Amino acid sequence: MPEEAPESEKPARVSAVRRLAQSLVFVLGLPLLAASLLSFASPLTWWLDLLTHFRPHFLSSLALATLLQALVGPRPAAAAWGTAAVLNAILIAPYFVPQRSQSEGPVLSVMHANVAGDDVDIEALAGWVGDVLPDLISLQEISSSNLPKIEAAFQAIGVGYELLAAEPRSDTRGVALFSRVQGASAGVVFPSPDADRPMVEAHVELGGKSLAVLGFHTTRPAPAGPYRSQARDMAAAALWSRAQQIGGIER
């Protein structure tokens, strides 16, 4: 039988294990805390803005760091991880709270999808549309070759989908809008300073109100060039939305 360690050595061993555990929690928590704090400076540059997409990861990881820190000590240090976790929880909580409809009345359903250019799965897309039956369908990455196939597939569903506006492109910027709403109108617009990026807008009358819908393909937010392009597109969409409201149109 192995001999037990002397009683005098046990506290030293426990202390060494605790210090190791504390170091591991520090190594885990400090980079997460730094990244979480840097995300609040997102307007400064594109790579800081990318950090805002990881708030659920910051929340879960910092909550774990808080629990481990509380177990291995020093417990006051857990406040740093816990405060950062709570801040991230507050920022993402609204995404998990169901929004109540502010008014009763007719509903307009809109489907917006990226069809992946000529790699589009026509059967799957048509099946999805046939199951959901949206009123408006806004599609991106429309090309001159996939548009006729998509249009034929939607017509085969048999509920009156009509192609109201389209700008097929050989790049990823092509757009199209289909509707089964009586009296709806649509067109291709270029509200962005990047005049080579088409957007598609639709106008419908619903419950005595005029509604406007804008559909477009946003650029991925990295690196710096695409990030600035996306920011311009979002600003243009916000300006378009404001213009609709000034004109008395819901958007």
Keywords, please?
single chain, about 250 residues, four-stranded mixed sheet, three-stranded antiparallel sheet, 7 strands, elongated
Question: Can you offer a commentary on this structure?
Answer:
The chain has helices at residues 10-38, 46-50, 55-72, 78-92, 122-132, 146-157, 224-246, and strands spanning 110-114, 136-140, 162-167, 175-179, 185-189, 199-206, 209-215. A hairpin with a 2-residue loop joins strand 6 (199-206) and strand 7 (209-215). It is built from 7 helices and 7 strands, in the order ααααβαβαβββββα. The protein is elongated and about 80 Å long. The protein is of the alpha+beta class. The termini are far apart. The longest helix has 29 residues, at 10-38.
Could you outline the blueprint of secondary structure elements for this entry?
Elements lengths: L9 H29 L7 H5 L4 H18 L5 H15 L17 E5 L7 H11 L3 E5 L5 H12 L4 E6 L7 E5 L5 E5 L9 E8 L2 E7 L8 H23 L5
Helix pairs in contact: 1-3, 1-4, 3-4, 5-6
